[in-house]
Amino acid sequence: MAKAEAGINYTDIIKDVQAGKYAPVYLLMGDEDYYIDTVSQYIADQALKPEERDWNYDLLYGAETRANDIINIARQYPMMADRRVVLVREFQTMNDKDALISYVKNPNPTTVLILCHKHGKLDGRRALGSEIKKQGGVVYESKRLYDRELPGFVNSYMQRKKIAIEPAAVQMLCDHVGSDLSRLVGEMDKLLMAKPQGETRVGTKLVEELTGVSKDFNNFELQSALALRDNFKANQIVNYFDNNPRSFVLQVTLASLFNLFSDALLAYFAPSQSDDGIAQYLGKSTWVARQAVIPARRNYSGKKVMDIISEIRQTDAKSKGVGGCKTPPGELLRELVFFILH
């Protein structure tokens, strides 16, 4: 059986499945849909051969299903296969979840039951989760990645596809898409399909062509310009955003700037103030840290950085109409950039 300890990582589940070890019940829950979908589909695909699926695979949806329906199907034995798979999507919408405890206490050893609970965790007061672990099942929480973790996700995904991607292209992609991993994977798949045959590296030019994001005028370049206190370049980018509203979402830009100056503040406390030391402390590559965080750490005082973070928060509030503010997004960004640089 698969491991059932708390804090199990999705890679642990994948490794067990690859080794032919299946848990009787999987509860996959959390805020990040991508891992729930990926892990559940991987288990289902590996547990059954294509020719076994017609008789041994059941896909159910929580809003349309009662606990007794799941139990009755899960109790059935496989036909001409070693196991059957019962996959329940949208488990969070099911009203009588706790009624499954009777099955979990005595699961069918030839059934793999997968419960996909999206948009949050199962209520910790429910006994279902603890009972699943007690009986050798797997409870996995899929958490959203922090923005600083997105480049690592992109690089890992591309490495698995045996494709290299330029650091600047990674940042362009992350800034453009954000933390929606399903969409991020979709954009990466488009890049893989669009790259020239035989090409093993993805650069900024291809990202620019496919996403419409300018390699010269984007949030990453704005970070760099502000970190270097390059007034001309920063205002060039602001003008570009103002004149190309489709390529500019103020909240995304504000989040990008907030991350930059939060990292710059943290950089003051790095045990080693070398470039490598700061990068390691922040969990970034040295290349990325050198583009913005390290120059910002050098060019702004700690007091100014804290004032900037406060001003970013105020700008975010204004953008949402707090205080009756009706200033256009482009003008709000222009005012913020002026404050940062002066």
Describe the 3D structure.
The chain is of the alpha/beta class. It has 3 domains: 133 residues, 3-Layer(aba) Sandwich (Rossmann fold), CATH 3.40.50; 70 residues, Helicase, Ruva Protein, domain 3 (Orthogonal Bundle); 127 residues, Zinc Finger, Delta Prime, domain 3, CATH 1.20.272.10. The chain is built from 18 helices and 7 strands. The chain has a 5-stranded parallel sheet with strand order 2-3-4-1-5, with helices on both faces. Strands 6-7 form a two-stranded parallel ribbon. Strand 3, helix 5 and strand 4 form a beta-alpha-beta unit. The protein starts with 9 loop residues before the first helix and ends with a helix. The N terminus is likely disordered.
Descriptive tags:
single chain, 342 residues, alpha/beta, Rossmann fold, Helicase, Ruva Protein, domain 3, Zinc Finger, Delta Prime, domain 3, 3 domains, 5-stranded parallel sheet, two-stranded parallel sheet, 18 helices, 54% helix, 10% strand, disordered N terminus
